[in-house]
Amino acid sequence: MTRRGRRLVIIGCAGIVLAGALGLALSAMRDTIVFFRAPSEVAALQPGTRFRLGGLVDTGSVSRLPDQVVEFRVADGNATVPVRYRGLLPDLFREGQGVVTEGTLTASGVFAADTVLARHDETYMPREVADALKKSGQWQPDGNTASASPSVLPASASASAAPAIR
Fold this sequence. Notes:
Layout: H1 3-29, E1 35-37, E2 50-57, E3 63-65, E4 69-75, E5 80-86, E6 98-105, E7 111-118, H2 127-136, E8 151-154
Parallel strand pairs: 1-2, 5-7
Antiparallel strand pairs: 2-4, 2-6, 3-4, 4-5, 6-7, 7-8
């Protein structure tokens, strides 16, 4: 075999190995990719689907139940989705404020959230949330519905695990 032939064989083998590694990586990521949805898109989804739900917390919809269970509604102007979350909410969570929750849709149409992200700065909003609000007519360019990088608090967090601030 000539030098050129060996070089082509090595390049071909390297290409096959890279394609295999890329295929394995994409296959592994398929289970961890979570898509963003607005409340008006939730009706078309199957129960058990995992996704991120984003919108505004409906005014007057927050109810706190025993065992750190909180129920509220997320709206985008066209539709409203009931959300049930068990755990501590971020300090910046409040009615009328933007929120992104991650979880699954139950058969009864309630979104079972396991993570709540409260948006806090009034000058930035994730593109997906801004696009959904623009589509629904709720977009306010002056920043009243805008937010910044989210505060994350998973459902597994407990009050005893939080560090004390002195």
